[in-house]
């Protein structure tokens, strides 16, 4: 079993829709939860991170972590065609190992 | 204009060749990382370095080597011992562990 699971998609939505992207993880010791956006053939771009449980909002993006169910989500409001990309979730332990553990990514297509 | 640069953008390797991928950052970050991305898979850590002249193996270090002689630079050599090197290689740097910033990547293809 992978440590971080993510549905590969593609997820296709109309412009203006609310998008929900999700990951599950297996290691309860993970404390940091990140969301990256990756356009085709480009490097990933850090959108936001959350420490422990709770919500974090940045513009149209909201990250949510539920540690009791080991479930992390990214919501995109008023989705735009420019949001079309692959979204990668990543996790990190509080101490020790420095490497991020990534999900495989969900490809999102926002149709104009 | 601060950032991370990787070169070349595309690289072709013949069987038995060693090739070196360049990564430079002017963000004054102490830590630097190399990840590999295969189609439909998440990124996997090859090597990382927390300070100059020190580096640690990641999950898939076999067939790769690195050096960290300068804070700004962290080159990755893909040796002939790496049996399946065709992939997208990404370099990252950070001040804190949870905010890793990535370069544009190098796509390596074995001919």
Approximately how much helix is present in the residues of chain B? under 10%
The radius of gyration over CA of chain B amounts to 13 Å
Oligomer: heterodimer
* Major beta-sheet overview of chain B: 7 strands, mixed
What's the rounded overall pLDDT mean of chain A?
93
Q: Structural class from helices and strands of chain B? A: mainly beta
Helical segment tally of chain A? 0
* Strand elements of chain A, count: 11
**Biggest interface pair, counts:** A-B, 25 and 26 residues
Topology order of chain B in helix (H) and strand (E) letters? EEEEEEEEEEE
Q: Helix count of chain B, per DSSP?
A: 0
- How big a fraction of the residues of chain B is strand? over 45%
Helicity range of chain A: under 10%
Shape of chain A: globular
Structure description:
The complex is a heterodimer of chains A (112) and B (111). With 112 residues, chain A is mostly beta strands. Chain A has no helices and eleven strands. Chain A has strands at residues 4-6, 11-14, 19-25, 30-38, 45-51, 54-58, 61-66, 71-76, 85-93, 101-102, 106-111. Chain A is globular and about 45 Å long. In chain A, 34% of the residues are buried. The model of chain A has no long low-confidence stretch (mean pLDDT 93). Chain B has strands at 4-7, 10-13, 19-25, 31-37, 43-51, 54-57, 64-66, 76-78, 87-94, 101-102, 106-110. The termini of chain B are far apart. Chain B has no helices and eleven strands. In chain B, strand 9 (87-94) and strand 10 (101-102) form a beta hairpin. In chain B, the strands form two sheets. In chain B, strands 2, 4, 5, 6, 9, 10 and 11 form a seven-stranded mixed beta sheet that branches. Chain B has a four-stranded antiparallel beta sheet with strand order 1-3-8-7, with no helix packed on it. Chain B is 0% helix and 50% strand. With 111 residues, chain B is an all-beta fold. The chains are: A mainly beta (112), B mainly beta (111). Chain A binds chain B through residues 4, 6, 8, 32, 34, 36, 41-46, 49, 51, 88, 90, 92, 98-105, and chain B through 4, 6, 31, 33, 40-45, 48, 50, 58-59, 88, 90, 97-105, 107.
